[in-house]
Amino acid sequence: MFIAGEWAQAASGQSFDVFNPATGEKIGAVADGGREDAARAIAAARDALAGWSAATAYRRADLLSKAYEIMVARKEDLARQMTVEQGKPLRMARTEVQYGADFLLWYAEEAKRVRGETLPSSRPDQRFLVLRQPVGVVAAITPWNYPVSMLTRKLAPALAAGCTVVLKPAEATPLCAVKMFEILEEAGFPAGTVNLVTAADPAPIGAEFTENPAVAKITFTGSTAVGKMLAEGAARRMKRISCELGGHAPFLVLEDADPVHAAKGAAAVKFLNTGQACISPNRIYVHRRLMDPFLETLEARVTRLRGGNGLEDGVGVGPLINDAALAKVDRQVKDAVGKGARLVCGGHRLMEDGLDRGHFYAPTVLAEVTPEMTIYREETFGPVAAVIPFEDEDAALAMANDTDYGLAAYVYTPSIARAFRMMEGLNFGIVGINDINPTAAAAPFGGMKESGLGREGGHEGIAEYLETKLVGLSV
Ligand code: ADP
Fold it and tell me: Does the active-site annotation cover 163?
């Protein structure tokens, strides 16, 4: 762990092991922190707050830029760490490191653009000022699916705003977090501004984050169930909270779309990170007239994807993160097939050539999926494309919106009128129109409904870490 500028073991002296999901091999061990360690890290962040929030925006920007430069110089090392710890193919890991680094640079720039306001008053002897100030100590909890970029997406805007941070990474991917904190240390952030607490059991750390009065704000990325629990805890002390939670993205291929182009897009985005992304398409609605060419292209693309160890050339899909994830995917596929879905390809674990030692599932396409199937509502987080036919566009839009989630949605159509109808009618925080990658450090990312609260990235991202203070001044 990294607390008050020092690398530290857990107070208990315990550690826990980290495994490669592709091979089952142990790849390292980290401190197994408990509540006491979280409290110590929060105290360090509280002690560092006055100094860091008083540092000029230019100084904060300078350190974030240094961290950016170190991170880019270490791209290969970070990417390899990610592949062995999380499983994604090396090429994708490199892309994620760059995406993660982009947040450091973007918020280095945004730090210098935190603006207040002056407002007119109805009294001639009064002036109004609106100040933007850091919220205070931030507690961050991050997931394993994007084990580098989810850290910088929180750390960079918080630090840019003048907040100090305690971060708890996911228990499956703490080694990437350790490497990121080595970079922050080297960049020269003052002791206590950034603190890392690793733990095998997240619950006591989460409890300390919500109950410790020194924490002003919680920022979380993970499952909706845990997000709701943390939000309840935060509510008891009226702490600020941002949550980026689960999703169940619809992917609509409208009647006038090119089915081959759309299927290529679906194949690319669905199997990214082995489907373990909150913006992964979960329900692919295809106009019935386009179904045959769409499925033909999708199947051809998907059967070409090679599953395997992400360090090997030519591997397109890595393993799932653990046995539970594998079991969930298999259960959803069996349920769908049992209820009448047609298995186009895949539908089984990958066992050959030593893959049985990892958590591999064959890239899978299911056709004729219906609302009665579990996969239609439950987040999949795995390499399964569920395809649903439709005939009426308004009905398809209603079906797309018929979910408790509201993170991402995708639409394929060449018609600008249809594109507008869809972008305005879809109740999702992110909409890709003929576009499968609607994310960037400069763009606000986040969900509606049970997909979360708040936005990360863009100028919205730093606002989550700023408090608004009104000053009335008699002159
Ligand atoms: P997933 O099911 O995808 O692993 P989780 O929501 O369980 O999603 O995990 C996301 C992050 O939330 C991880 O860092 C994990 O350790 C953390 N987490 C899980 N349970 C709790 C909890 N009770 N309190 C605080 N953090 C938690």
Answer: no
CB 211 less than 6 A from any atom of ligand 1: no
CATH assignment at residue 381: 3.40.309.10
Task: Give the separation between CA 229 and CA 240, rounded to whole angstroms.
Answer: 14
Of 176, 218, 226, the one to substitute when testing ligand 1's pocket (max ligand atoms within 8 A of C-beta) is: 226
Residues of the chain scoring pLDDT < 70: none
Q: Give yes or no: residues 138 and 45 share one domain.
A: yes
223 CA to centre of ligand 1 in angstroms = 7
Distances (CA, A) of 278 to 269, 286, 327, 424, 453: 11, 21, 19, 21, 14
Number of domains comprising the chain: 2
Q: What pLDDT is stored for residue 142 in this prediction?
A: 98
Residues 6 or more apart whose Cβ sits within 8 Å of residue 293:
259, 260, 263
Annotation marks residue 176 as catalytic: no
Q: pTM of the entire structure?
A: 0.98
The whole-number pLDDT of residue 189 equals 98
Tell me the CATH number at 105: 3.40.605.10
Give ∠ CA 54-59-61 in degrees, rounded to 5.
115
446 located within any domain: no
Residue of 278, 299, 379, 450 marked catalytic: 278
Are β-strands 408-412 and 249-253 bridged in parallel, bridged antiparallel, or unpaired? parallel
